[in-house]
Amino acid sequence: MAKKSKTAFVCQNCGTVHTQWQGKCDGCGEWNTIVEDNPLAGIGGGPGRAPQKGRVVPLTSLDGEIEEAPRIVSRVAELDRVTGGGFVRGSAVLLGGEPGIGKSTLLMQAAAALSRAGHNIVYVSGEEAVAQVRLRAKRLKANETQVQLAAETNVEDILTTLGNMEKRPDLVIIDSIQTMWTDSADSAPGTVTQVRQSAQALIRYAKSTGATVVMVGHVTKEGNIAGPRVVEHMVDAVIQFEGDGSHQYRILRALKNRFGPTDEIGVFEMMQSGLRQVANPSELFLGERADNAPGAAVFGGMEGTRPLLVEIQALVAPTSLGTPRRAVVGWDSSRLSMIIAVLQAHCGVNLGQHDVYLNVAGGYRISEPAADLAVACALISSLAGLALPTDCVYFGEISLSGSIRPVPHAGQRIKEAEKLGFKSAVLPKGSSDVPKRNDESIFAAEKLVDLVVKIAGGKTLSYESDEK
């Protein structure tokens, strides 16, 4: 008598496996996302597959010659910066982003640039018809290139087509992986099993032929790439395309890269003719600054090896609510609470009766703690009603003891500020690589309270001692 195969219930949102169906997923907490799945259709599985005897795998030592991975330079400088110098041959890349953010536009421009350089490029669209893709290519002036186009969703048909080509493709673009389906899985396209099996087949093709495969992935409402997280572990690089619909800029960020850094970003500007590369992002984020405005401080940040200057805006106003409001856009809200607590505990500045609004201009999001000093200066400036110098840049990390800690790459931050016309800087005491000068253009602060006194200039703030 044939043994009855066991069934599993898999969440289509996070991939958590359950022994029985239930309304709410234990992994992600979403409702009505669990469907019945066949565990034999997973990675390495198959109907009636019997265990086979393995082969001996050769072992080697860690010491040996290191060969640099061969790359395909896309000629799109911002994209090559994020990938670490170009696409690695035989690698699999997952590109995620919100709908309409410009993923297909970016890949079409990259495909056109690679085709002009003599590479064989194949663009497979699973969401749009051939006519729709041609309209985009015409708008981007990529219709005259030799990019080969197909509209197909079956993975077996795609791989057979690629195998019958006279010349092996250098780059294959799959737009998108959620629309692909394979005959080895019985579930509908877009489910966890289909996405996993389709991605596995495409990655196997990339590793066996040496062609680079770029797969586009949709994102959920939380900003994560939809589908099972195992796909992100299978690919060699995960790149996120970020941006705000109300702003024209777009940021390309590497979340995972086996062949390059993960702290580099590429900046683009969305225009009617496509994505324009922004060689100097600081000018983009500082292009609409208002002079002599209280609560504005310019932060000298770093993204990988690239210095970046952005404006931090703060508004401190008396509250009419029992609990003051704290609104943050572009920064960590918990870190703002820490800065407010340090100002109250060590500087005597009480913001308990004030609403605090913090915004990073241009829609950019800051992740490094070096922005603490710029945020604190913006808060003090807004509370005192005194505008900070327009030619000064701020950076430094604030500790819970009220001291200002040094941050790396201080010299690069100051050089970037000087290029844009900034003449002074406020930074932590003991910072390395700071140019030595005889003037007072660089103010090295050791304690936050010293900086508060310098900004206030003798003006009385909302000190605890004044309220008692």
Automatic annotation (TrEMBL):
<dbReference type="InterPro" id="IPR027417">
    <property type="entry name" value="P-loop_NTPase"/>
</dbReference>
<dbReference type="InterPro" id="IPR020568">
    <property type="entry name" value="Ribosomal_Su5_D2-typ_SF"/>
</dbReference>
<keyword id="KW-0234">DNA repair</keyword>
<feature type="region of interest" description="Lon-protease-like">
    <location>
        <begin position="355"/>
        <end position="468"/>
    </location>
</feature>
<comment type="function">
    <text>DNA-dependent ATPase involved in processing of recombination intermediates, plays a role in repairing DNA breaks. Stimulates the branch migration of RecA-mediated strand transfer reactions, allowing the 3' invading strand to extend heteroduplex DNA faster. Binds ssDNA in the presence of ADP but not other nucleotides, has ATPase activity that is stimulated by ssDNA and various branched DNA structures, but inhibited by SSB. Does not have RecA's homology-searching function.</text>
</comment>
<dbReference type="GO" id="GO:0005524">
    <property type="term" value="F:ATP binding"/>
</dbReference>
<dbReference type="InterPro" id="IPR014721">
    <property type="entry name" value="Ribsml_uS5_D2-typ_fold_subgr"/>
</dbReference>
<dbReference type="Pfam" id="PF18073">
    <property type="entry name" value="Zn_ribbon_LapB"/>
</dbReference>
<keyword id="KW-0378">Hydrolase</keyword>
<keyword id="KW-0863">Zinc-finger</keyword>
<keyword id="KW-0346">Stress response</keyword>
<keyword id="KW-0238">DNA-binding</keyword>
<keyword id="KW-0547">Nucleotide-binding</keyword>
<keyword id="KW-0227">DNA damage</keyword>
<dbReference type="GO" id="GO:0008270">
    <property type="term" value="F:zinc ion binding"/>
</dbReference>
<comment type="similarity">
    <text>Belongs to the RecA family. RadA subfamily.</text>
</comment>
<comment type="function">
    <text>Plays a role in repairing double-strand DNA breaks, probably involving stabilizing or processing branched DNA or blocked replication forks.</text>
</comment>
<keyword id="KW-0479">Metal-binding</keyword>
<dbReference type="GO" id="GO:0140664">
    <property type="term" value="F:ATP-dependent DNA damage sensor activity"/>
</dbReference>
<dbReference type="GO" id="GO:0003684">
    <property type="term" value="F:damaged DNA binding"/>
</dbReference>
<protein>
    <recommendedName>
        <fullName>DNA repair protein RadA</fullName>
    </recommendedName>
</protein>
<dbReference type="GO" id="GO:0005829">
    <property type="term" value="C:cytosol"/>
</dbReference>
<keyword id="KW-0067">ATP-binding</keyword>
<keyword id="KW-0862">Zinc</keyword>
<dbReference type="GO" id="GO:0000725">
    <property type="term" value="P:recombinational repair"/>
</dbReference>
<feature type="binding site">
    <location>
        <begin position="97"/>
        <end position="104"/>
    </location>
    <ligand>
        <name>ATP</name>
    </ligand>
</feature>
<dbReference type="InterPro" id="IPR041166">
    <property type="entry name" value="Rubredoxin_2"/>
</dbReference>
<dbReference type="InterPro" id="IPR004504">
    <property type="entry name" value="DNA_repair_RadA"/>
</dbReference>
<feature type="short sequence motif" description="RadA KNRFG motif">
    <location>
        <begin position="256"/>
        <end position="260"/>
    </location>
</feature>
<dbReference type="Pfam" id="PF13541">
    <property type="entry name" value="ChlI"/>
</dbReference>
<feature type="domain" description="RecA family profile 1">
    <location>
        <begin position="68"/>
        <end position="219"/>
    </location>
</feature>
<dbReference type="InterPro" id="IPR020588">
    <property type="entry name" value="RecA_ATP-bd"/>
</dbReference>
<dbReference type="GO" id="GO:0016787">
    <property type="term" value="F:hydrolase activity"/>
</dbReference>
<dbReference type="Pfam" id="PF13481">
    <property type="entry name" value="AAA_25"/>
</dbReference>
<dbReference type="InterPro" id="IPR003593">
    <property type="entry name" value="AAA+_ATPase"/>
</dbReference>
